[in-house]
């Protein structure tokens, strides 16, 4: 059991709240601060502002050890290890916007016996730059690898924990290591720049894997192979592994698009053109738009066609719609003159005016009523449970399904009289031929 020590968490977003609740669960007192007073008020009432499986329960269970505040002084006076979990969104140029991190550094004030433990994803070199200005404060790079939708589980059972520090912050880094020791994961101890690079390179590699399998899917469609079989056969090679080989309509979310661009931009700024990542990004953009071609193949012009989009969140089990493929698709479809009807079990409230012009629906059935085609965008389990052969078939004007995640039972749909288009799966006629 690690020694218990009070912990500060600065920025109570996805990463911050999971980190705070996770350390509280491990027995530490946690002082978590956010500048948004409504968010802090809600958390004090026990309300969790994001949809993340298991998080509400974890926060409720550890209420006594979780101290939510808007006041940085509360955190600084109670904890020495300050986990920085603020956002680093992309700027128009593709660089990371570090203004929230900068504000945290400023807010350290004259405290000297503290360490900033950087969980936010930052460009390589950020830690060194901060240390140059604040040599009186410790600095530990401790990138976060949790996935939305599985964040609590990822906190408790990480594949690895990366702790990067220079010799001057070695004691603080040891303390961070101790905090994670009881989770039993391998700890990778590095210098600061390498830890920063591990984070960006990991996300860029995973995104590369996705764009790679998506291109294999596109070629498979032409050549009559089935990408699901191909991925299964490839994934059994231990050097390749089975994960992140699911072909689909492109990756989204708050991390992959941002981090791939950030690494490409960072390389460019240092004088190196990262050719591969340019292609990864381009393939992903094209992949999102291929659905339009699939619909046109069967429907011809999309003018005045009713298209049902099933799913808005960038992936299931989250209400996050940042860089969600559904948003791009909805606007491309409306641009082609189609009427878009969209349903998501949890994410629609976050859309605001981003879905202006589309009809938001209260159920999948409502979206599917009178539709000329259904596009499955997010693989929410409830979409598989729909009565496709009965209710859905009766509701739709035309039984065409484009399954953007190869999630539905293609054979059952075809047997029920649907025209089914997956990603990288041969059309029925090609199989029969
Ligand atoms: C990703 C990484 O997986 C985390 O390790 C990392 O900590 C996080 O970014 C981050 O940097 O904060 P996340 O964006 O939550 O996590 O979601 P993923 O499950 O990785 O999915 C990202 C996107 O890739 C989704 O749109 C998903 O549908 C897509 N995807 C994923 C595929 O298209 N195919 C796959 O095989 C896997």
Task: Describe this protein with a few key phrases.
13% strand, 2 domains, binds uridine-5'-diphosphate-glucuronic acid, 433 residues, single chain, disordered C terminus, alpha/beta, Rossmann fold, globular, six-stranded parallel beta sheet
Report on the structure:
- The chain is an alpha/beta fold and 433 residues long.
- The protein folds into two domains: 7-190, Rossmann fold (3-Layer(aba) Sandwich), CATH 3.40.50; 191-433, Rossmann fold (3-Layer(aba) Sandwich), CATH 3.40.50.720.
- It is built from 18 helices and 14 strands.
- The chain has a six-stranded parallel β-sheet with strand order 3-2-1-4-5-6, with helices on both faces. Strands 11-10-9-12-13-14 form a six-stranded parallel β-sheet. Strands 7-8 form a two-stranded parallel ribbon.
- The termini are far apart.
- Mean pLDDT is 95; it is low at 429-433.
- Uridine-5'-diphosphate-glucuronic acid is lined by residues 121, 144-148, 203, 206, 210, 244-246, 248, 251-253, 255-256, 259, 314-315.
